[in-house]
Specification:
This protein is of the alpha/beta class. The chain has a domain of about 210 residues: Rossmann fold (3-Layer(aba) Sandwich), CATH 3.40.50.720. It is about 40% helix and about 20% strand. The strands form four sheets. The chain has a seven-stranded parallel beta sheet, with helices on both faces. α4 links the parallel β5 and β6. The N and C termini lie far apart (about 40 Å). The structure holds nicotinamide-adenine-dinucleotide (NAD). The site of nicotinamide-adenine-dinucleotide has 28 residues, from α1, α3 and β5.
Length: about 300
């Protein structure tokens, strides 16, 4: 089995490379390193692994047969929405067109990495795949949210019009080793602040909720979806919902830090609630997360300590 992973040198993509290699796939990792790093894949010594530096907003060519295309390439943080908004829109539009054309040419199965952000600031909790979302099309996050909605739409068009065999995973907040400590996401932020002994910054009163899925659980869910017959979008995330204040206290506990918690103004359009309904993943893929937050946070903190020395 030969798999292409765009964004394979990123955080989730590198865990997916590990999983696919352990399942006996030949893996071609395609990345332009805008937010990824070769450090995330340098531990891979397998002869079944190849890295290709390429920007997928340009057409991708590869000789030989391909069975699966995992399209994960896309910056994914609020920081990048501010610093590189057009890159996010281009990779999810032109990049998705290019990788769908590539899958069509190779008659390969195609999986789009979408996001819980397609639900925007949800008016229902938990969010099932049937929910259409509550998304601003002009706010600072819209470059990501709307780009992913567009990417889902093109994916379904290739499925319906060209008969490409497609899958869509809606990834909920995922964390673990190989995240970048300064990427602006809440877990790296809190851990970095706790480890350096500075104040832990909560934007708003800390009552907003999130549900955090460990990276290896996420990779397993993505893999199972690709191997399944399910052509509908599938949520992959952890159902354990907690407030940001609870998370901050847990980070303090796991790191043993004496940092204080402080509050700043809420961020624009920050979703107030986030919790996946994973009934479809359970029923169709037989998947559910295995790694609890305390265990996952402990491993993540160990990782951040190891890359800081
Ligand atoms: N981490 C999460 O919590 C989360 C949640 C929802 C969705 N997702 C989605 O999962 C995917 C992976 O996210 P991640 O958290 O690993 O982020 P990441 O930034 O670590 O990985 C994204 C990778 O894509 C690469 N990339 C970006 N634009 C590219 C381009 N034009 N050509 C080639 N490579 C390009 C980056 O260099 C990086 O290696 C993304 O599509 C993201 O939107 C992630």
């Amino acid at each position: 089995m030969k798999s292409i992973i765009t964004g394979g040198a990123g955080f989730i993509g590198s865990h997916l490379c590990d999983l696919l290699l352990s399942e006996g796939h030949e893996v071609v990792c395609v990345d332009n390193l805008i937010t990824g790093s070769v450090k995330n894949i340098e531990h891979i010594k397998s002869d079944n692994f190849t890295y290709v530096q390429h920007d997928v907003t340009k057409p991708f060519h590869y000789a030989g047969e391909v069975d699966y295309v995992f399209h994960l390439a896309s910056p994914a943080t609020f920081k990048m929405c501010v610093e590189a908004p057009t890159a996010i829109m281009k990779v999810n539009s032109e990049g998705t067109f290019n990788m769908l054309d590539f899958a069509k040419e190779k008659q390969a199965r195609f999986l789009l990495a979408s996001t819980s952000e397609v639900y925007g600031d949800p008016l229902v909790n938990p969010q099932s795949e049937a929910y259409w979302g509550n998304v601003s099309c002009t706010g600072p996050r819209s470059v990501y949210d709307e780009a992913k909605r567009f990417a889902e739409s093109i994916t379904m068009a290739y499925y319906r019009y060209y008969g490409v065999d497609t899958r869509i995973v809606r990834i909920f907040n995922t964390y673990g080793p190989r995240m970048q400590i300064k990427d602006s996401r809440v877990i790296p932020n809190f851990v970095n602040q706790a480890l350096t002994g500075v104040d832990i910054t909560i934007y708003g009163d800390g009552s907003y909720t999130r549900s955090f899925c460990y990276a290896t659980d996420e990779a397993e869910g993505i893999y199972r979806l690709m191997m399944s017959d399910c052509t509908e979008p599938v949520n992959i995330g952890n159902e354990r919902e907690m407030t940001i204040l609870e998370l901050a206290n847990m980070v303090l506990k796991v790191t043993g830090s004496k940092s204080k918690i402080i509050h700043k103004d809420s961020l624009t359009d920050d979703p107030k609630l986030r919790r996946p309904d994973i009934s479809r993943a359970r029923n169709v893929l037989g998947w559910e997360p295995k790694v609890g937050l305390e265990e996952g946070l402990t491993k993540t903190v160990e990782y951040f300590k190891s890359v800081r020395v």
